[in-house]
Recover the amino acids of this structure.
């Protein structure tokens, strides 16, 4: 991926915290190519792990099938192994992680270990009413997992992914009946998590605006925080004219 010049300054962890439907996935997909760093989405990773049929995948599948949340330990393991991959060395966007204070503490140590000094946290702030209306209109590509919003004009037409042409489907957990429970679960963990990050610096984003506006704000914040070069590129100094040169 091509990276803008300023992003060479330091690897960054960009952390998106917000309820389901607040636009984290949409924004991650927008800013990731601009920043030249990958998105690490825990939802997607867990789904992929389940499909892979690995031992870890089977464990995750059993937990999800029982309706429970994946434990902090297991989630930390999955994320840590992903962040150690080489495409994450210049930074990454975290979507859906950390979800609890225990995970956030684990991540703080992991960032030190991975030598990722910059951490920018965005809180996607949105009302429950807006979340409900967004989630009930939300569609996802069955193949690549990209999120789309059902437009009012689409009618009964089948909607297709503009990247791979696959059918867009409603996610079963976006069912209107599940949403209050998901929001309750989110808030229970998010309140202490946001307290943790507010003490360390956290940007509040008004998430009920257009994706363009939100993306612009995220990029402005990230670039304004990229002022401390970690590596100073040194070029051999050109010899000043008229200076005597010595050779041995
Ligand atoms: Zn797709």
């Amino acid at each position: 991926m091509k990276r803008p010049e300023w992003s060479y300054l330091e690897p960054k962890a960009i952390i998106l915290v917000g309820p389901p439907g607040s636009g984290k996935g949409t924004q991650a997909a927008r800013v990731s190519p601009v920043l030249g760093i990958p998105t690490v989405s825990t939802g997607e990773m867990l789904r992929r792990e389940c499909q892979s049929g690995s031992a870890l995948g089977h464990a995750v599948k059993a937990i999800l099938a029982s309706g429970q949340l994946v434990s902090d330990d297991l989630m930390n393991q999955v994320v840590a192994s992903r962040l150690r991959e080489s495409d994450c060395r210049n930074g990454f966007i975290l979507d859906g992680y950390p979800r609890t204070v225990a995970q956030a503490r684990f991540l703080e140590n992991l960032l030190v270990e991975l030598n990722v000094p910059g951490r920018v946290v965005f809180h996607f702030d949105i009302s429950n009413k807006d979340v409900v209306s967004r989630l009930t209109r939300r569609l996802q590509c069955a193949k690549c997992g990209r999120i789309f919003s059902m437009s009012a004009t689409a009618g009964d037409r089948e909607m297709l992914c503009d990247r791979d042409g696959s059918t867009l489907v409603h996610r079963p957990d976006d069912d209107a009946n599940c949403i209050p429970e998901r929001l309750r679960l989110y808030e229970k963990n998010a309140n202490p998590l946001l307290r943790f990050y507010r003490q360390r610096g956290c940007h509040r984003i008004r998430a009920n605006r257009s994706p363009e506006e939100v993306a612009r704000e995220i990029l402005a914040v990230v670039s304004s925080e990229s002022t401390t070069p970690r590596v100073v590129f040194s070029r051999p100094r050109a010899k000043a004219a008229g200076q005597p040169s010595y050779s041995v």
Q: What stands out?
A: DSSP finds eight helices and eight strands in the chain.
